Amino acid sequence: MDERSAGLASVEAVFREERGRLLAALVRRFGDLDLAEEVTSEAIEAALERWPVEGVPPRPGAWLMTTARRKAVDRLRRDQAYAAKLAVLQVEADRAGPAPAADTGDGLPDERLRLFFTCAHPALPVEDRGALTLRFLAGLTTPEVARAYLVPVPTMAKRIVRAKKKISEARIPFRVPGADELPERLPGVLQAVYSIFTEGYAASSGASLQRADLAEEAIRLGRILRGLMPTDQEVAGLLALMLLVHARRDARTGPDGEPVLLADQDRSRWNRELIEEGSGLVVASLTGGPPGPYGVQAAIAALHDEAADVETTDWPQIVALYDVLMTLAPSPVVALNRAVAVALRDGPAAGLALLDELSGEPLLRGYPPFVIARADLLRRLGRDDAAATAYREAIALAPTEPERAHLRRRLAALEFPAETR
After folding, report:
1. What distance in Å separates the CA atoms of residue 421 and residue 416, rounded to the nearest whole number?
2. What is the pLDDT of residue 203?
3. Cα-trace Rg, the chain
4. Which residues of the chain carry a pLDDT beneath 50?
5. Greatest CA span in the chain, whole angstroms?
6. Within a 13 Å sphere around the CA of 324, how many CA atoms are in the beta-carbon half?
7. How far apart are CA 38 and CA 179, in angstroms?
8. E strand or H helix at 277
């Protein structure tokens, strides 16, 4: 790599880490997301021109902030009407009061927590919250966000413009909610991050089962949140859950890209460092107060990761944790997962009975994991004809080609057992 290429790589690395922090600080200062985004991009362009030649400055965040702030002031001086509008917005932002800001080491306060809550504000459509979080906190470009959600770039660009317009027109405040609002608002922030992770863990469509880059981006966002809210149990629980699930990434697919079930995974390929980190965070998520849904889910994931195999997994404890989760965040999907755990604790007949009780749930109709779980339990009970029918239904519902190929193989093993040995 030549000197200029090395310089560009350094700029890109700094940009990745600094963009969200810079953008948040500028929104806090000027009260306008469009202006902040534009001058952030201009500051990065200036860095791309100068840093490969002059070198990355000792305090790159402060350099970018100074450059962006000057560009914003210049723009406001040229547009007095725009400046008057921003003055009103700035007064409203100031009324919101100060928020905790992490020490970044270069004199630039970390205002990203405000940006997290703005991007995940309940006034915004649910489908826009994750996109904004990726765009403004993860630093992905609009084409990258479009790829993440598997939609055309113009479609995603319109969604982002629409969401920013909503923030402006609804005067959504750029602030951290007060103590009385936080319990109601924080779950939306956590859900926005977790939805990014789940799309990376199990892609909703496409040629690949996993989107590792997306899962890792969600974990990076989780680490940022953990740094900004180090004492919050559910923030610790979310990060723990993502780390413990992502630790199995390398063992979840075979050489052909098809899924490998938990019982068949080579556990020596699980990432022990992530498991150790995640397990430590589980302790933090379960201490200091009643546990939340993410903390309980992380505890379940830890029991899976710490077991030598499926047979020695503590299924009674997992079922007990699902019982707790059903009191904290009851849903048909949680009930489905509990039924699968019961099947592994008490046998397939017990699990199938619970699935039959759930068959009337509208959310589970056409839900691939439900149909697959039922097919697997029917197969284990020797009810091959019913299992084959369920596998055919699952194949029609499976969202990715690797999953469809895996299910076709399981169906073939039932219909042509001699040929698949």
Report:
1. 9
2. 65
3. 24
4. 1, 93, 96-107
5. 80
6. 17
7. 33
8. helix 272-286
Q: 236: helix, coil or strand?
A: helix
pTM for this prediction: 0.80
Both tokens of 22, joined, read: 């810079």
Question: Long-range contacts of range 33-37, CB-CB < 8 Å, 24 or more positions apart?
Answer: 33/118, 33/136, 33/164, 33/167, 33/168, 34/164, 34/168, 35/72, 35/75, 35/82, 35/86, 36/68, 36/72, 37/136
First to last CA, the chain: 51
What pLDDT score does 4 carry? Answer: 53
> What is residue 231's DSSP assignment?
T
CB 75 within 8 A of CB 35: yes
- pLDDT for res 214: 82
**pLDDT score, position 341:** 98
> How far is residue 315's CA from residue 417's CA, in Å, rounded to a whole number?
30
Listed in sequence order, the residues at least 6 apart from 421 whose beta carbon sits closer than 8 Å to its beta carbon are none
pLDDT digits (tens, 9 = 90+) for 131-190: 888 888 877 788 878 877 778 899 999 999 999 888 888 888 888 888 788 888 899 899
| Domain extent listing, the chain | 1-95
Decide: 270 and 247 in contact? Cβ < 8 Å.
yes
Residue 415: count other Cβ atoms within 10 Å of its Cβ: 12
pLDDT number for residue 82: 60
Which spans in 55-152 are helix H?
60-78, 80-95, 112-119, 126-136, 142-149
Q: Do residues 235 and 293 lie in contact, with contact meaning Cβ atoms separated by under 8 Å?
A: no
Residue 159: CB partners within 8 Å, gap ≥ 6?
127, 128, 131
Question: In the structure encoding, which two tokens stand for residue 312, read together?
Answer: 């020695």
Instruction: Please state, as a whole number, how many other Cβ atoms lie within 10 Å of the Cβ of residue 238.
Output: 32
The length of the chain in residues reads 421
